[in-house]
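Researcher: Dear colleague, please comment on this protein.
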Amino acid sequence: MSATTLARLALDPLVQDQIPHLPYLASAVIVSWFCGVETGIVSVVIAAFVANYLFVQPRYEIFLHPQDRIAMTVVSLVASGLVLLVASWRRTEVALRQRGGEAGYTRSFIEHYLIPILYPAGLTPAHQRWVGAFVVAVNVVAYALAIRRARRRRDAQVRTGVASAVSTRRGNAP
């Protein structure tokens, strides 16, 4: 979801207030494919609030307006439907693999394929904590940069709006 937020922030000058939630639909599908339905639903809820905070006017407000609640509900329902659809595809994939003679797997894609690569059997719990702390730190830095950039834009818009409202014909503020 961090990558989706950073990509949406990069595209913000082009799309501005249009399609604030759309990139997060794709993110929810990808998350649910690789991490399972529970993680997909959690990502939908988090994405709804992140998109509303960063990309829906008035921006950077925690409190939801009634029209925002309706939009967030509709987007969350659509995304949840996509997450459930992807989960059914995964179950079908596992069933077909088992029918074809492969072992299949009961855990998520990440638990089955990536966890053994990221956390090999000889990795100590202390090393696992360091790897986890690094991943959290990268996400904290990414979100801090995204929020800082968004606040700078907001402040620049506020300053520009105030200056133009009180400027004279020559463009000088009194």
